[in-house]
Structures are given as C-alpha cells and as structure tokens.
Amino acid sequence: MTGTEDRVAEALHASAPRTTGVELADVAELVRRRRASRASVIATASVLVVGTAMAGAFVALDAPWRAQPPATATDPTSPAPSGPAAPDGVDLTGAIPWTGATAPAYRPPDAGGDARACTASEVAAAVGGTDGAGGHLLTTLRFTNTGSTPCVLSGYPAVTATEQGRPDVLATDGSWFPTAGSAVMQPGDQTLLGVETDAMCDANPGGTASPDLYHHLTATLPGGGDVTVAVPGGIDVTCGVKLTPFYVESPGGASATDPLSALTVALELPEHALAGSTLVYVAAVTNPTDHAIPLTRCPGYVEQATGAADVSTSNGLACDAAGSSVPAGATVRFEMRLAVPTGARSGPLTVRWSLLAPFAVTADGTVQVTAVGGGARVAGVLELVGGPAPGPPRGLFGAVRLVDTATGRTYRAAAASDGSFRLTVPAGSYTVTGASPLYGDGAYACRADGPVSVPAAGVTGLQVGCQAP
Fold it and tell me: Where in this chain does the record put each DUF4232 domain (predicted)?
C-alpha cells in the first residue's frame, strides 16, 4: 500500500460511522478466516514468500455482507448454495498493479547493462594458456569472479608488462586475434583477456627470439585496482604488447548465468473462479541471493492454463513500478489477471506462470472453476466517490458481490488494483454490494444504485460506490 493509500485508509477508518454488530476483535477473526489464498512454490527452490498482511477483512456491517466462509446449507446468514459462489480473492495489499504491458522479447545480459564493473579485490587472475598463428602469439589470462555478487569486465584494461631491472612496457588496445563479446559474471564465472605478442616487426625484422622475457603482467581493472599475473614461460615484448578486449568463451551461453535466472516465483491464487470472470491473483517473485538482481532488462511472462479451459497469454512485468531491482532476500508481489473463458467447464484449472526467458523461473497453482451456463457478462468498477473535496472517482481493490433478488443465489468477483471487476451471471435482477480494505478497513459496505437489472446482453460500466464522508 502506498503512503497515499495509507492516509486515505486512515481517514476513512476514522470518519466512517460506527455501528453495532462488528467489534474490532470480530474483524481480526474474520480477517484470519477470509485469508484463503494458497502459495504454490517451484520444487527446485526453497523460498519463503511472505505476503503483506491484509489491511482489513472484505466485510460490511450489514448482516448479508458480513465476512463469512463460502455459503453452506447450514449457514444461517447466507442463502443456500444453489448457485456458484467463490471467495473474494487474494490480498493485493502491497502488490504492484497489473498494467497489461506487451511482453518484450528476451534480451540476454550485455557487457554493461546488468552489473557494476569488477574491482581487483573480487577477482582472481591466472594464465589460461597460449595460442599462435602467423607469427602472432596469444597469452590468455582468465579472470574469475571470487566475490559474492555479479560484476562485469568489459572493454580494455590498462596492462603493463614488468620485469625487474627492465623498463615497463605498456600494452596497446587492439589485437590480430578475434574475440567474442563480454558478459556479466556471476560468482565463480570467468572472463578472458588476450595478451598478444608478435615475432616480427620493425624492431625485429628477422623474427629472432629475444632471451630477455618479461614474466609479470599487471592489469588495472575498469572497476578499480590492480591485478598482477605471473607468466611462468614469459613473453617477448620486443615487438610490443597488444590486447584484446575482455571476452567470454561462449557468449551464446550467457543466458545460463543471467542474473534473472536466480529468481524464484510463487503463486497466490483464490480457491475458486467463475467462468467468464477475470482471475485476479499474485505472482510473488523472490530473490533468494545475497545481492540485488537488476530489472533493467524487464522480462515478460507467460500464463498457461489447462484443465477447465485452455488459455495461453503473455504480458510484461510492471518493472518501472517495482523499482530498478529485486533486493537481496526480498519478494516483489505482482498483480496478475487472466481471463477465464465464458465456456470454461466446471473443474480444476491449473495455471502455470513462467518468465519469458530461456531458463526456468516458473510456478504452478490450481483454481476450481464453476461454469455458468447461458450467463450474461457484468463488468464494472469498485470506486471511492464523494468526500469534502470531490474529484474523479478512485478505483479500489477489494470484492464485489451480486445477490439474485429472485433466487438469493450469490456471485462474487475480485476487484483488481484499479477497482475493475468482471464476472458472468444468469440474466436477472441483482443487489450489488462491495467492500475494500482501503474503505473503513473493509468494514463498510459499498453499493450500486438500486437493484441492477442484468439482461442477456450483459452490463458494462457498473459502478459500485464507496461513499466518502
């Protein structure tokens, strides 16, 4: 919840009229009873996903809307369960609102986009071997990330060849040997640097090998600090020393060490959903490492639902609202929306959520779907209206309940972070109420004007108002 939402909730809670029938202890107990969402965590990671406690129960003070478990035949305050009924949904408190952004194509990490430059204190260097062709000799240095966080070596370092009693020789940028690109190094990963020496040049036209070899190379890294490497066989610096840029051996495999691949995800799903409604749930993305994971390359995600219906869709994460990274050990909760087809069958719907990337960051969860035959679609918004300084109505997340005035059957839908809701019900006349934890801590009812007539063609733009004092 934002600071603004906190202040609105506090103001409404303080100013909303108090009535009898619901004590604070009752509300606390109702909160515990209503929290029915389940977390489904991928088996390959041990992650604790802590959801922020809900600000209040989705309840109202009038008896028909007081928080109850789903209606049963013995529930004296609710009609008999002769029609579909579903819990009000998951807690969106603190979740990043859904944006419906288009899913971007996967972009692997590049040389400087996802990590800071490595410093000398967090790398170890050693000679990795030599290679030669056409009078050119390449001595390869291997730099290993010995730190606990990702970093990158890219471009050209300053390298000096040294030997006791002889003048230092500064290497120049550019080499005859081709190289691949650089990449972010996770702890334990390696980046290479090629040091080229040549047999023939103006200073040595005959290509005669010099007995005066240099046995140490000192590299000043872009992130700061010097690393000195002993070269047991020595290098001949008669024709100078040239450098390749930093590079990795298999740039195509960089995605295997993409920082995003360390993320894990769990789903917070409601127990039930209606055919023709929007399933509102939470994907809780966790960083189990001891370093922040950047979101500068904002990933997309894929939702695949099977069972009661077959659905596949993709969108982009709301990375801008989430910040520049997922902090070490933290969880960022993203609101998700998935349209359940009107023709969905009654039964379990398995939802699989995955990052749109060439590595597995995925989780599964199940929702019980109730089919609604011959139903009409209802769409609207739960919103805060009125108040001492009127302005545009403000959408509130929470819950909406439709009660058929003829049969007493109850239909519920979750209102998303912008207050929008959608569900399918039989054509008829309905009493429509709602509640939000941002309106009197969820203890006060919001209402639509009068009985709402729902024709077979459906209703759009239905307003469920939470009247501000």
Answer: 118-240
